[in-house]
Amino acid sequence: MKDLCCLNGRIQPLEEARIDPLDRGFLFGDALYDAVRVVEGTILHLDSHLARLQGGLERIDIDVPVGLASNCRQLVAASRLETGYLYLQVSRGVAPRSHEPPGDITPTILILAVAHSFAAPASRAMRAISRQDDRWRHCDLKTTSLLGAVMGKIEMRDAGVDEVLFVGDQGQVREGGSSNIFVRHGDVLETHPADGRILEGITRGILLELAEQIGLPCRETPPLLSERQEWQEAFLCGTLTGVQPLVELDDEPVANGVVGAWTKQLAEALEKRNRNDS
Ligand code: PMP
User: pTM to 2 decimals?
Assistant: First the structure.
């Protein structure tokens, strides 16, 4: 067998294939994949695998590439793959790094031909462990598997706003797609606790310290959407965001759309701290 792959429709030696560092598959996990069994040079259930892949791509708003089936067949023939599998990955493509993708972007399509000898049917006694299903629940890890965030950012982009806020089942306001949030409610600053449901932002931590120094009472408790009419002010924060007032949520003004006094005070305090630290 020859070690070939098919990258963007071009069959080439695997060792020569190169993916751009700005590819969103690499930077954000903004990609889907499928794997298809090949037995004696025949690709099994290719239509079902491609239908699943294409259905997924449509759901996350990636343009479905044409010619995948013929690329797969050409690669099997060119590489003389007998028994093994094809690994197909389609990423959103290459763009300057930003959670929200540009509207016009060309997907990156990679197909690998992998030789593999499969265990004979019902020949391998399998052992397992059981664990709580925590997949997608590791918001405290600054992982590059950001597809969930990217999906939120696409909705944000399409709504023509600046941030998406992720909310729990009981309306707990957790955090932004790339920021943390503070809300002034009953003259206390509320921000979601760092309990694994949010990224424990460095800026959030500094602001908690600064609020204490200034004498602004803080509570690490989830702001509730059901109480949003009572919010006196709200702001977003992050390394790239700094401190910015949240003036509108779901087409309704927050605190009459006015930039709050505590927001300004903390924004200035953070600016000063950043200057002193630099
Ligand atoms: N939450 C999420 C999901 C983020 O991506 C970011 C930005 N890194 C933040 C919060 C803010 O964290 P930091 O202050 O460390 O930038």
Answer: 0.94
Ligand 1: atom nearest CA of 204 is 14
Q: List phi, psi (to 5°) of 273.
A: -60, -40
The architecture in CATH of the region 4-115 reads 2-Layer Sandwich (3.30)
Residues with CB under 6 A from ligand 1: 175, 178-180, 199, 201-204, 238-239
Q: How far is the CA of 150 from the centre of ligand 1 (A)?
A: 14
Phi, psi of 108 (to 5 degrees): -95, 130
Class of domain 126-277: alpha beta
| Side-chain half-sphere exposure of 181, counting CA atoms within 13 A | 28
| Alpha-helical segments (H) within the chain | 24-28, 46-59, 68-79, 147-159, 202-214, 261-277
Give residue 155 CA to ligand 1 midpoint distance, Å. 19
SS3 category, 186: coil
The residue whose CA is least distant from atom 9 of ligand 1 is 179
**In the chain, what are the domain boundaries?**
4-115, 126-277
What string of pLDDT tens digits covers the 278 residues of the chain? 999 999 999 999 999 999 999 999 999 999 999 999 999 999 999 999 999 999 999 999 999 899 999 999 999 999 999 999 999 999 999 999 999 999 999 999 999 999 999 999 999 999 999 999 988 889 999 999 999 999 999 999 999 999 999 999 999 999 999 999 999 999 999 999 999 999 999 999 999 999 999 999 999 999 999 999 999 999 999 999 999 999 999 999 999 999 999 999 999 999 999 999 87
Distance from the alpha carbon of residue 142 to the mean position of ligand 1, in angstroms: 8
Give the residue whose CA is nearest to atom 2 of ligand 1.
178
Mutate to test the pocket of ligand 1, among 179, 192, 200, 244 (most ligand atoms within 8 A of CB): 179
